[in-house]
Design goal:
Structural class: alpha+beta
Number of domains: 1
CATH architecture: Alpha-Beta Complex
Bound molecules: 8-OXO-2'-deoxyguanosine-5'-triphosphate
Order of helices and strands: EEEEHEEEEHH
CATH class: Alpha Beta
CATH superfamily: Nucleoside Triphosphate Pyrophosphohydrolase
Number of helices: 3
Strand content: 25-35%
Low-confidence stretches: none
Number of strands: 8
Radius of gyration: 14 Å
């Protein structure tokens, strides 16, 4: 049996306290995901915590430091199922240092208004992300 690939992603918002915009990122690779939108992030490396991996990925990909907020709970400790081999945990995050730039893995970043579900869901997200995006919109509309 192959082990699960642990992925982490960030729902970067303009404000953890009162989020109104989400930063979506458009992937450049691999071919099956190129042009699709996603949560910036990536795979957790060996001997790295999920949170440390997320800070590392956001520094590499966007050139920013962030404060992490709450996890977007999936009901599963490994996170949201992406496919038969991978699951992703997602945290809210707010930029504390820097301005997000598409430095690696993305060719466009876009702040989308969380008040407009149609605009957010209208982006061609990686299909596995759609349930996550819907849960995010629900969570922002009705904070815990
Ligand atoms: N980062 C990210 N990956 C996602 C999302 N949705 C989704 O299905 N994935 C998949 C795509 C990839 O198969 C996997 C994450 O891999 P990645 O390529 O981002 O990881 P990485 O930066 O560590 O890249 P590498 O070292 O393997 O090159 O999870 C998402 O919203 N964000």
């Amino acid at each position: 049996m192959t082990s699960l690939i642990n992925v982490v992603g960030a729902a970067v918002v303009d404000s953890l306290e009162a989020p109104t915009r989400l930063l979506a990122a458009r992937r450049t690779a691999p071919p099956q995901f190129a042009g699709m939108w996603e949560f910036p992030g990536g795979k957790v490396e060996a001997a790295e915590t999920a949170e440390a991996a997320l800070h590392r990925e956001l520094a590499e990909e966007l050139g920013v430091q962030v404060q992490l907020g709450a996890e977007l709970e999936s009901g599963n400790p490994v996170g949201w199922t992406l496919n038969e081999r991978a699951a992703m945990r997602v945290w809210f995050a707010e930029v504390t240092v820097g301005e997000p730039q598409p430095l690696e893995d993305h060719d466009e970043l876009r702040w989308v208004p969380l008040t407009d579900d149609h605009q957010v869901l209208g982006l061609p997200w990686i299909p596995a992300d759609l349930p996550i995006v819907r849960a995010l919109l629900d969570r922002v509309a009705a904070p815990a």
